[in-house]
Amino acid sequence: MGKVINVGLLGSQFVSTIHAEAFARVPDAKILAVASPTPGNAEAFAKKRGIPNSFTDYRKLLEMDEIDVVVIGIPNHLHCQATCDAAGAGKHVICEKPLCVSVAEADRMIEACKKAGVKLMYAENLLFTPKYVRVKQLVDDGALGKIYLVKQSEKHSGPHAPHFWDVERSGGGVTMDMGCHAIEFCRWMLGRPKITSVYAQMATQVHSDKTRGDDDSIVIIEFEGGAVGVAEESWCRLGGMDDRAEVHGSDGVCYADLHHGNAIETYSKGGYGYAVEKAGETKGWTFTIYEEEWNYGYPQEMAHFVECIRDDKQPMVTGEDGRVVMEALFAAYESAGTGRKVAMPFKTDAAKPIDLWRKG
Q1: Cα–Cα–Cα angle for 49, 53, 58, nearest 5°?
Q2: Buried-most residue among 78, 110, 136, 328 (CB within 10 A)?
Q3: What is the predicted pLDDT for the residue at 360?
Q4: What are phi and psi of 358, to 5 degrees?
Q5: Does the residue 310 lie in any domain?
Q6: 207: burial class by Cβ within 10 Å (0-12, 13-18, 19+)?
Q7: Are residues 11 and 100 in the same domain?
C-alpha cells in the first residue's frame, strides 16, 4: 500500500453514500471529514461510517491541512464555487457529473485548479464499469473493426433528490442529469475525437407537475471521422434502473446491459427490501442486483483517482473532458429548442441550457 490519501466529502446524501462505499474499498484512501449545511446530517453520516470529523460549513473542512482531496457530491449549481474554494485551499478535486451548469463555470473551475496546481477530476463512473471496460478493450483490440455507431442509454423513474427537479439548481432535466454520462461514454469509446454537431429531441412527458425540465430525450452526436453517438435518457421508465450500451463496427457489434445480465432473476410474492436503484416495487419478477457499487465502477473510479493524486498522474477523465460534455449538453438543448442540428464548437451566452430549450 502506498501513501494514504485523505479524503473530504462535500455532501451527505445519496451520492456521498456511494462515494463512502466506494472509498471503503480503496486501501490507499481514508475519509477524514464530511460536510453538509443541513444541521445534523453530516454528523449522522460521519457517526454511521466512523468518519472522525463533520462540519455544516465545508470551508471548515477545507481548513484541515491533512485533507488531500475533496469529493463534490452536492447540487449542480454549487459545483463551481466549491471547486474554486477547494482549489484555493490547495485541495485536489473530484467533481461529480455534470461538471457544473455552464461552460463558463467549467472554464472557471479548470483555471482555478490549474492556477493552484491541483488536479480536477471529472467523476464519470461509466468509464470504470467492468462490463463497459471490457467492451472498450474489445474496441481497442480491433475486435469490432471500424466503429461507426455508439449508443448508451440510462432510464429510470426519476431522480432521488428534489434539487434535480429544480432547473435553477440542476441547470436542466434528464439530459443534463444522465445525458452527460452518455456523451462522455461515446467520446471515450471512440478515442475522444472532436464533436462536430449535435441534434436533440426533448420533451416533458410525465413529470410536468414536478419540473419544467426535460424528462425524456434523445441526443445524436456526430464526431470527426464520421462516427455517431446516440444518447437516450428518460425519467419516465418504471421498474428500476436500466443502463445499457451498444457499439457497432464494420466487423462486429457489442451489446452490454449493466443490470439484467448482472442481476439475479427473482420472483417474490410478497416483495422484499431492495432490488436495484430506482426500483419502487419488488413484488413479482424483479432483477436483484448484487455488488451494485462495483458493477457501477465506483470503487474502481475512486481507486484510479487516488492513484493519480498519489503518483501525480493524469486522470482518465479530466476537467477538460467535463467541459466538452458541458458544451455538448448546451448544444443539445439548443437543438431541441430550435429543431435544428447545432454545429460544434458551440458558444452561447445562455445562463442555463434549459433556457435554450424553452426559448424555442
Answers
A1: 110
A2: 328
A3: 60
A4: -70, -25
A5: no
A6: buried
A7: yes
Q: Residue range 328-337: average pLDDT?
A: 96
Q: What would the pLDDT profile of 294-319 be if each residue is shown by its tens digit?
A: 999 999 999 999 999 999 999 999 99
Task: Tell me the C-alpha distance between 30 and 44, whole Å.
Answer: 18
Report for 16-20, 270-274, 281-285: range of highest mean pLDDT: 16-20
Cα distances (angstroms) measured from residue 261 to each of 186, 256, 277, 287: 21, 8, 15, 9
Find the mean pLDDT for residues 65-84. 98
pLDDT digits (tens, 9 = 90+) for 225-249: 999 999 999 999 998 899 999 999 9
* CATH code of the domain containing 225: 3.30.360.10
pLDDT band of residue 204 (cuts 50, 70, 90) is very high
Asked if residues 321 and 124 have their Cβ atoms less than 8 Å apart, the reply is: yes
Kindly tell me the burial class for residue 117, based on how many C-beta atoms sit within 10 Å of its own C-beta (0-12, 13-18, 19 or more).
Answer: exposed
Domain assignment of residue 133, yes or no: yes
Direct distance between the N- and C-terminal alpha carbons of the chain, in angstroms, rounded to an integer: 55
Quick one: cell of 113? 485548479
In a domain, 281, yes or no: yes
Average pLDDT, the chain: 95
Look at residue 40 and give its three-state secondary structure. coil
Cβ-based neighbours of 315, under 8 Å, separated by 6 or more: 119, 121, 122, 304, 305, 308
pLDDT at residue 352, rounded to an integer: 81
Report the candidate in 218, 237, 242, 241 with the shortest Cα–Cα distance to residue 228. Answer: 218
- What CA–CA distance (Å, rounded) separates 69 from 317? 16
Query: What's at 315, amino acid-wise?
Result: P
Residue pair 171/76 in contact by the 8 Å Cβ criterion: yes
CA–CA gap between residue 336 and residue 215 (Å, rounded): 13
